[in-house]
Amino acid sequence: MADTGILPRDPDHHDIRSDAMLVRSNIGFETVCSSLIGLPGIPTSENELPRRPVWLFANGQPDKTPFQPVEI
Questions:
Q1: Distance, CA of 11 to CA of 30 (rounded, Å)
Q2: Nearest 5°: phi and psi at 12?
Q3: pLDDT of the chain along its 72 residues, tens only?
């Protein structure tokens, strides 16, 4: 989630890259927080217990702010 892209900078498009997960620009548009959501797979046997989904949240840009678990 902290990937800022691999394409070269494009000043005509305000440095907003379509290949980036983390957006920074010279016009004030940028990533301000990030979420990761993990959904459990379907149990494959009768004895397998159901799993819970997982939600992690970074209250800031994910290359500077650590992800923290969120209670669901």
A1: 15
A2: -70, -20
A3: 666 666 666 666 555 666 567 777 777 778 889 999 999 988 888 888 888 999 999 999 888 899 999 998
